[in-house]
Design a protein that fits this description.
alpha+beta, Elongation Factor Tu (Ef-tu), domain 3, six-stranded antiparallel β-barrel, four-stranded antiparallel β-sheet, disordered N terminus
Length: 250
């Protein structure tokens, strides 16, 4: 007698139903931490540096005065232009009264109004010349380089300060075109920073995918943004992008 086959174990039925298991491949790519913004503050005019308010390592706020250039002639011009404006305002007021009483022509009254407008513009120009000799921070950040010293001549275009903002950092990677095309702007992935510990990871958001492929390497540039409010991440640190693992918060 041929024995009848017994019942198939349930776990075998489950495996047959699911089919072969598929394991997501985990890929890693090395990149570099970069500051979110990095600017070189240059002198807009040629003048002597008479006051220096920022040193390397100082934290500065946007709009803060970093240095002052010699501006005595320009300040005197502001006083002259302000006095001229006051005179033109008086003359215009008088001309307006005379025109209202029909004692002068409309052209004469118009001439005084135009002279007043010109005086206002000349005062603004004089004030702008003074402002250009007051060097301010264009962003909030840390001064990492200071080039001149007090008493030195700064020429137009000469660098004065280097400022970086690392409250947010960008991490740049180079991926092969196939992997880069799998990413989308706004996606979040894990970025590991080996220098801070083997398990120290940060959440990074895809910020930019370069549409160009480098012809020599066949790689595409991918940039991610990482919030860094405590400024733990420093520019120059090596970073590792992990693709294929569960996204942060999953």
């Amino acid at each position: 007698m041929i024995p009848r086959p017994g019942p198939v174990p349930r776990f075998l039925l489950l495996l047959a139903f699911l089919g072969p298991a598929v394991h997501a491949e985990v890929l890693t790519f090395e990149g570099l931490v970069q500051p979110n913004r990095e600017v070189t503050v240059s002198s807009p005019v040629e003048s002597v540096l008479v006051e220096l308010n920022a040193r390397e390592g100082d934290r500065v706020e946007a709009g803060e005065v970093l240095a002052r250039l010699y501006a005595r002639p320009q300040e005197l011009e502001v006083h002259r232009a302000a006095a001229a404006l006051e005179k033109r305002e008086f003359e215009n007021a008088g001309a307006a009264n005379l025109f209202a009483e029909s004692l002068i022509s409309e052209d004469e009254a118009l001439e005084k109004r135009i002279e007043l407008d010109i005086a206002r513009v000349q005062l603004e120009i004089a004030e702008e010349a003074v402002d250009r000799r007051r060097i301010t921070a264009p962003l909030t950040g840390i001064v990492v380089e200071k080039f001149p010293e007090e008493g030195e001549l700064a020429r137009a275009g000469d660098p004065l300060f280097e400022i970086v903002d690392i409250r947010t950092v960008r991490v740049q990677f180079y991926l092969n075109s196939g992997e880069a095309r799998r990413l989308s702007l706004g996606e979040r992935h894990s970025v590991r920073i080996p220098a801070l510990g083997p398990d120290r990871t940060f959440e990074a958001e895809v910020d930019f995918i370069d549409p160009r492929i480098d012809p020599a390497s066949g790689l595409m540039r991918v940039r991610m943004r990482v919030d860094n409010p405590q400024e733990i991440l420093k520019p120059g640190l090596r970073a590792v992008l992990v693709l294929g693992a569960d996204p942060p918060g999953a």
